Structures are given as structure tokens and as C-alpha cells.
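Re: the 57-residue chain
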Amino acid sequence: MKVLVTGADGFIGSHLTETLVQLGYDVKAFVLYNSFNSWGWLDKSPKHIQENLEVIS
């Protein structure tokens, strides 16, 4: 199943995104663009989580 998570760079959104990826969902994470090229809280996610999601800013 495909899922779009808005606010994925925040605390709740990032944890929801991690959980959905672990459950096998096809996740697209919508994050707020910033000039630091940061994904917010998603930067702290394990690499195997980051590799299995598509980030849109």
C-alpha cells in the first residue's frame, strides 16, 4: 500500500514514517524545504529506513 506522510520532518511524522516503512508500506515523506538540506527528525532515522522511503520537499 502507498502512503504519503505530510509533516514527516517533525517528531510525530518522522516516527510514523519509520513505523510505516518497517511495516512494509511504500512511503513518500513530505518535508518542509530548508536551505540546509535537512530532513528534520528524519535525519536521525536509521539508514535502512532512509533508503526505503522517498522524500519530497
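Residues 2-56 form one domain.
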